[in-house]
Amino acid sequence: ADGKVFAYTRHEPVGVCGQIIPWNFPMLMMAWKIAPALATGNVIILKPAEQTPLTALYIAQLTKEAGFPDGVVNVVPGYGKTGAALVAHNKVDKIAFTGSTEVGKLINQNAAKGNLKRTTLELGGKSPNIILKDVDLNHAVETAHFGLFFNMGQCCCAGSRTFVQANIYDEFVEKSALCAKSKTVGDPFDLKIEQGPQIDEQQLNKIMDMIKSGKEEGASLVTGGERIGTKGYFVAPTVFADVKDDMTIAKEEIFGPVQQILKFDDLDEVIERANNTDYGLAAAVLTKDLDKANYITQGLRAGTVWVNTYNTIISQVPFGGYKMSGHGRELGEYGLQAYTEVKSVIVQLNEKNS
């Protein structure tokens, strides 16, 4: 400091970290949670989604075989009440949650009621994918398709609002429909298959209800829109055109293989419309003009903005949302900071002996 005082900061473990992960990426989400927590010296109690507990239990077994001390990595399967108990417990110092915005709100409220534990929340999204008229159209169609249909559309950052500039809109819709129709649906263990089933019957029914809503509210169903077969929870790759901002399918998270294509004219218009949502997890811009890409990127209220790509995740780069998509960041240095307390230490120095 001023020569008479020495000051430094320490980053110390938060302590006991409760972690609640979703079913859509059970192994990846567990890695995102436990790696920074353990690297910074914490202990964890992790609740996997009730649909996918086996992955977490197996990884916990591997940590035991690797020599982690007892009590450092704890996996507790269960339903919502199990997660609620973690959130309410006064010996838990932090909660990290990935899942729906609805549940995230409850977690934040209940974490505050007890010991005011800190939270990291990675929640829902309704991410815009903005496609300008100068793009390579085939590349744009494939990128937008991957951005939405990846993992059967069961991705929090899915590019479910595809904004396409008016000049290329009709051709983009036509090519997107052909792309969706060409995808093979079936057993995900078959390497030739490109789309598997949804997670369960509840999710299937939600998706079918959203498709019904799109048709009833006046969107044009270009392809798909039906369940495939009666065994398993398969939904045909679905594309809607002529989608308006106030339609339910343009406002609410679907979490399924349903693409909504919206038309826009100019950059300021699409920035305003893209931001007209409660969410702010991710976004994308596809264009050959990086000046325009930079202009749009600066205007978007989203935690991640991809340019000429989608779903490109880099472990050193922080990931998280604006607005009702949550708070806090995972991955990178920011992800480590979320699991530490900062302590300032200030020492008065004695005068040196002569």
Automatic annotation (TrEMBL):
Catalytic residues as annotated in Swiss-Prot or TrEMBL: E122
EC number: 1.2.1.3
Keywords associated with the record: NAD, Oxidoreductase
InterPro entries registered for this protein in UniProt: Ald_DH/histidinol_DH, Ald_DH_C, Ald_DH_CS_CYS, Ald_DH_CS_GLU, Ald_DH_N, Aldehyde_DH_dom
Species of the source: Lasius niger (Black garden ant)
PANTHER family assigned: ALDEHYDE DEHYDROGENASE-RELATED
Family: Belongs to the aldehyde dehydrogenase family.
Pfam families, A to Z: Aldedh
Keyword flag Secreted: no
Ranges where the Aldehyde dehydrogenase domain occurs: 4-345
Record-given protein name: aldehyde dehydrogenase (NAD(+))
Single Gene Ontology MF annotation: aldehyde dehydrogenase (NAD+) activity
